[in-house]
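Re: Re: token formats

Sure, here are both.
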Amino acid sequence: QGYQPTQPIRYSHALHAGKHKIECQYCHSTANKGKHANIPSVNTCMNCHKQVNKGPVYGTDEIAKIYEAVGWDPVAKDYTKEPKPVEWVRIHNLPDHVYFNHAQHVNAGKVQCQTCHGPIETMEEVYQYSPLSMGWCINCHRNTEVQFASNNYYSAYEKIHEQLKNKEISKVTVDKVGGTE
């Protein structure tokens, strides 16, 4: 918690996700499709930065690093050099024995990114907001109510759904459907 490494290219989430209201999944496009929310490729940056070559926070310095990474020549408006990988420093890292699936939380759980990542839209530089400990995750599962009515993901739990509908039970938390296993 609080881990905030220096990245090779400075990127303001406050500007992009906050001021410009770019959705998290525009850049982190695999969050709703798989286990991991990808670190965006600089090609994603180029969707805007082919046109926007000066930023209000870092001027041209950081955008020039994007151009260098993708081999873009802003004068010629063309890719003229070989691309180079950007060595991003991972911030949110769970132990190898932990199974976490972003898509399951995004799609089935309807969990907002800020629930785990904090107020990302206000962060000039990203840091690990939540402890991401086993206890922290389990407490969330114990207190988060499953929304069966709007969620086909849990169709295997039709009996529980019927009990909720018939008011035989009032709520079901994630831990009751295997969320702490």
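Second one below.
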Amino acid sequence: MSEYQYYEFLAVDRPLTAAEQAEVRQLSTRARITATSFTNEYHWGNFRGDPRVMMRRYYDAHLYLANWGTHQIMLRLPRTLLSPKIAEQYGVDGHVGVTATPESVILDLISEDDSGEWVEGAEDSLSAIVGVRSELAAGDLRALYLAWLSAYGGWEWDEDAFGEDDEDEREPPVPAGLGSLTAPQRALADFLRVDPDLLAVAAQASPELPEAKEDPGALAAHIAGLPGGEKDRLLMLVGRDQAARAKMELLRGLRGDPDEGRVARPGRTVADLLDAAAELRMERRRQAEAQAAAREALRERQREAARQRHLDQLAKDPEAAWAEAGKLIGTKVPARYDEAVTLLADLRELARSDGQAGEFERRFAALREEHLRKPSLIARFDRAGLTA
């Protein structure tokens, strides 16, 4: 396959009307289009539409990937649910884009990897990732931090991704709960190729998530205190088939906006994070190597113990072993020759440990002389170092 591109769009808050579906159909005759989705793939050529325009007009989520290494996720949220000012704290040119319209905020999250390594099943990721949209709407900014982390994490495999000045760039506010990501956040981290070691380092500055408690009384009080015009607006959203958005806005009003000053101390620099991740990676490798060495040492001790038990058993009746070796050689079967050579090598080792090496050499020389006309056997003796 010389070229492959995959496009997928989802309408979450409101399904497309028949007229809107007809409009997007003009962009592709082969796309699979429903009231809530648009999917197409290309093995040659390019999509005629502009994903950014489609996101502004029709859709709430978009996934794009190409076999040259581009992974892209776009999410659209109402401005009432995600402040552009908050989102822009996590912006990184070319990787984490934030576009504000009068009604919406559109996030554009991109990961590039030109190594040629294809991620199996990446086309199926949007359904797993789209849940981060409602999490962002609820004030959970972990997805934005993951995108920021992915951007600078790309420096690990592309040294030209950023300039030296970017090393001193400080991280944005660190959300709570980076050490316990939700399933959609894990799917996003995988799709954006977030390095696990870099994430582990970043999570060290992330507090635990506060325990979420449902309080029907607080929700009822919040609804009762809403101005009449605000209640009418939320009901209008429900009437326009945007009940999911109405619910998110209602709950956001109850919970309030995310705390922009989430981290009291100055954020770590990009260099701090990358260096710490590299050290963590090296330490993990050192531990893995030490554990592998310990396992191998244990196996070696076990092999030595088994070997010693075998020699002890052989020492009980070495004459029987000599007789067995002669019997195996007498079969004139090459596979049996191998067994005989192994047995004779064991007898040599036993003789050396007992101070009887000379006696072994005498008996073996006689045995070898007896079978000089068996070249296959003699060759096996030579390979095993059994020489007269």
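The CA atoms of residues 282 and 288 lie 10 Å apart. Strands lie at 5-10, 32-33, 37-42, 61-66, 70-78, 96-100, 104-112.
- S.
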